[in-house]
Prior knowledge:
Elements: E1 7-11, H1 16-26, E2 32-37, H2 49-52, E3 62-63, E4 75-78, H3 82-95, E5 98-101, H4 108-115, E6 122-125, H5 131-147, E7 153-160, H6 170-182, H7 187-190, E8 191-192, E9 207-213, E10 219-227, E11 230-238, H8 242-255, E12 261-263, H9 265-268
Parallel strand pairs: 1-2, 1-4, 2-3, 4-5, 5-6, 6-12, 7-9, 8-9
Antiparallel strand pairs: 7-10, 10-11
Amino acid sequence: xxxxxxxxxxxxxxxxxxxxxxxxxxxxxxxxxxxxxxxxxxxxxxxxxxxxxxxxxxxxxxxxxxxxxxxxxxxxxxxxxxxxxxxxxxxxxxxxxxxxxxxxxxxxxxxxxxxxxxxxxxxxxxxxxxxxxxxxxxxxxxxxxxxxxxxxxxxxxxxxxxxxxxxxxxxxxxxxxxxxxxxxxxxxxxxxxxxxxxxxxxxxxxxxxxxxxxxxxxxxxxxxxxxxxxxxxxxxxxxxxxxxxxxxxxxxxxxxxxxxxxxxxxxxxxxx
Length: 272
């Protein structure tokens, strides 16, 4: 039986996204911040997570192991790294917890491993938790279906801060997948992720990707539909990590009431 309001744990609570999640949870009366997790052996073990986030004391102390707080939370929010996330997912399956996953950069094998938990854990997995991005995905689906194969070249351009470790971003890949599926194409077959030297003219069906890494850009994504005489650009720009954090908190509230299954933000927002 889950608590009401649901009790939330954050992995990586001392990181940039973790601190933003603490602030988002502190602003939401429909959930309870219960646990913050730092790296094993971290000197921050025992610190007040509110102070880590610059909010002052909240009375929630950081632990360095989920096992130390197994009875204290209902939903785990994880924006860490693929192998860490999968380890935490196994823990949630074993102990009857829900999970919200915003981790990107999972390979095909890791995605298959994650999907193997769909009958054991209520989990929301999305490369981008922003409400605006997920509305943008619906717009892209509509645009691709309307334009069809009418001679429009499609390019996905994304920009993030210099510290982001994966490319293209999970959001950019999701946008490409939405467009490809709407056109009856396979992104694996038609996605072009590099153009160097004498690469020749583009094919009619390819979906190109361009990646920018610079400064402190939080996240910008544009999908370009271009033909002779016009171009259509659908763009989403994030100016703060808070938009992702608020979406993750919304997902945590929602998934706490769901049966086991693999869900995404389209499910959370009722866009399917």
